[in-house]
Amino acid sequence: MFSIKIITLLTVFCLIKPNGAGVIKRSLFSDDIQKEFEQHIQLETETFLNNIFRSQINYFNKVKLSLPANCKRINDIETYIYKLETAIEEKNVEKKDNIYLETFQSMGRTPLLLNKESDTGMSDEEYQKVLEDNDLNDFMKNFLVEVAVYFWKMAKASGKAVETSIDDYLENIKKRNNLY
Prior knowledge:
By secondary structure, this protein is mainly alpha-helical. It has a domain at 44-154. The chain has seven helices and two strands.
């Protein structure tokens, strides 16, 4: 879903150095810059995913408390929360991402934000009120803010890697020119 590989691939693709024939000669990223960049985006991605997982856990725990005690939706919410907690505990970001993607896809059969009277025992209006009373709008705004901040941080990290690579490249050119 929010794969580190895609971000790394796009950044590296932007930093390749074509030779005169248009064939890729080598990346401008040094191994150190590449490693630092990958570690940074790994940490930011883990933080981002954990933040959105915790936000969802908090929101759906509040919703669960507002539902009738014997409705099926409570079990759906508990299953979803358990899977999110499992994803938070996972340290490997790719596995964490896969757990979330699988959870999201499996929950598509019982969407938690949509009412199904047989699952909730409530009318559409009643269920909508439960969602809104538990700050659905704030939950959605915070999610969008988290996504925006994540992509801003990824762009900033990419820019820093590009800047450092260009600085190193120019420094090497200066050193070579001073040798002659």
